[in-house]
């Protein structure tokens, strides 16, 4: 008997060339190219003007402007955190001794995350000596706990995130009257390569 072969229809070859997707430009790509540079007073002033420009009058924006005498020299990126603090605050021992007020700090360090706050607290050991440092961020710490601590004890340095510091000030848990220094962690970048100032919520 003769064998019968069924001819199979030829499979069409799938086009191997897939339609190229347009690669979206990520903020991290843009930020990767920008080299770290010390923050200048003008940088902060520009940010304030941009942020408040739409809903404030010209006079109100003028009132927000800080004179250059309000600013200390920025870290030129050669200092460690402790050595930078020693340079800008040579009379720290005296300030620390004189500070007796509760619900307040002498120095406030603002950074973008809780992990970064812990990093900075560890790196300032050479500067802080025996003064008390308070963690001012939301991770694992309730706002009520922080308010109780501020009410009961005297703290010299607060290190935390803008969101939690704002909440403490609004709820009258933190008073800023006796504060002498605000340090902004300007150049540090997170995993997405954003600085604190690149985060819209901040």
Automatic annotation (TrEMBL):
Residues 1-42 are annotated as: Disordered. One of its GO terms (cellular component) is nucleus. Gene3D superfamilies: P-loop containing nucleotide triphosphate hydrolases (3.40.50.300). Transmembrane segments: none annotated. This is CMS1 protein. It comes from Cnemophilus loriae (Loria's bird-of-paradise). The gene is Cmss1.
């Amino acid at each position: 008997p003769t064998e019968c072969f069924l001819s199979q229809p030829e499979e069409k070859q799938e086009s191997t060339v897939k339609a190229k997707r347009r690669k979206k430009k990520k903020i991290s790509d843009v930020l990767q190219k920008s080299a770290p540079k010390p923050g200048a007073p003008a940088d902060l002033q520009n940010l304030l003007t941009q942020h408040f420009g739409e809903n404030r009058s010209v006079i109100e924006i003028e009132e927000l402007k800080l004179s250059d005498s309000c600013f200390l020299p920025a870290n030129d990126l050669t200092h460690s955190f402790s050595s930078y603090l020693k340079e800008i605050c040579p009379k720290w021992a005296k300030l620390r001794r004189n500070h007796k007020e509760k619900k307040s700090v002498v120095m406030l360090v603002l950074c973008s995350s809780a992990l970064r706050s812990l990093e900075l607290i560890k790196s300032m050991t050479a500067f802080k000596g025996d003064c008390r440092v308070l963690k001012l961020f939301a991770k694992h710490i309730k706002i009520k706990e922080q308010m109780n601590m501020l009410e009961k004890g005297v703290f010299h340095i607060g290190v935390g995130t803008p969101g939690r510091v704002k909440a403490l000030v609004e709820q009258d848990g933190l008073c800023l009257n006796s504060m002498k220094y605000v340090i902004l962690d300007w150049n540090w970048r997170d995993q997405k390569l954003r600085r604190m100032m690149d985060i819209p919520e901040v």
